[in-house]
Design brief:
Elements: E1 5-8, H1 18-24, E2 31-36, H2 48-55, E3 62-67, H3 75-81, E4 85-89, H4 96-105, E5 109-114, E6 132-136, H5 152-165, E7 170-174, H6 181-188, E8 192-195, H7 197-200, H8 206-218
The structure holds D-xylitol-5-phosphate (DX5) and zinc ion.
Residues 9, 32, 34, 65, 174, 194 line the site of zinc ion.
């Protein structure tokens, strides 16, 4: 199994103190940044300016999750802002091969995200172009939703596809991840755990929230 990584999602951070919030999770493996356009998903969140602001306060890799239509038009901007990984949605990318190539040509790791109702079979022919498969474990668009247990069998199928390919592809889960649900997803084959509310909304603060999630994954 590839190494387990935790990616705090700044969507749930206190934006009036974004720098402090990011510094509080310096023991994480990467920082997850959710970009929403009000078209692919109903919500609008942040763009490249926030990515470059976060870049200035952390050395952790920035993992940008584009929940936007026509993602190919914005890849240069996010790569330029400091993204180390860019994940686009299969459902929003008519020419996924082309988009993944464009990301990799910029020296950025390429990911594809799939919504809970999307079959992983759509990715079978492009594993050679992928560094990350992000399995949405809630409907994309908002933080704080409950983990959808019915996605566990899909996580298993994605891990089987990845293992059979002999490629080092991260299997990431995003949505409703906390100390209870992360071990289920780990057991199913995920190795990257994106978590917003359970870290930035933790009662004891984000540093402790991160620690609790990491400990749950070590058991
Ligand atoms: C949802 C986003 C998630 C979100 C997760 O569309 O992709 O990254 O921040 O939030 P929680 O962990 O609160 O479910
Ligand atoms: Zn996300």
């Amino acid at each position: 199994m590839p190494p387990v990584k935790v990616a705090p999602s700044v969507l749930a951070a206190d934006f009036t103190h974004l720098g402090d919030e990011v510094r509080a999770v310096s023991e994480a493996d990467q920082i997850h940044i959710d970009v929403m356009d009000g078209r692919f998903v109903p919500n609008i969140s942040m763009g490249p300016m926030i990515v470059s602001a976060i870049k200035r306060v952390t050395d952790l890799p920035l993992d940008v999750h584009l929940m936007i239509v026509e993602p190919e038009d914005h890849i240069d901007a996010f790569a330029g802002a400091g993204a180390e990984m860019i994940t686009v949605h299969q459902e929003a990318s008519p020419d996924l091969h082309h988009t993944l190539k464009a990301i990799r040509d910029l020296g950025v790791k390429a990911g594809v995200a799939i919504k809970p109702e999307t079959s992983p079979l759509v990715l079978a022919d492009m594993l050679h172009m992928l560094d990350i498969i992000l399995v949405m474990t809630v409907d994309p668009g908002f933080g704080g939703q409950p983990f959808m247990k019915e996605t566990l069998s899909k996580i298993q199928r994605v891990r089987q596809m990845v293992s059979a390919s002999n490629r080092e592809i991260d299997v990431s889960v995003d949505g409703g991840i906390d100390a209870e649900t992360a071990p289920w997803a780990l057991e199913a084959g995920a190795n990257v755990f994106v978590a917003g509310s359970s870290i930035f909304g933790a009662e004891g603060g984000p540093t402790q929230g991160l620690q609790v999630l990491k400990s749950a994954l070590e058991k």
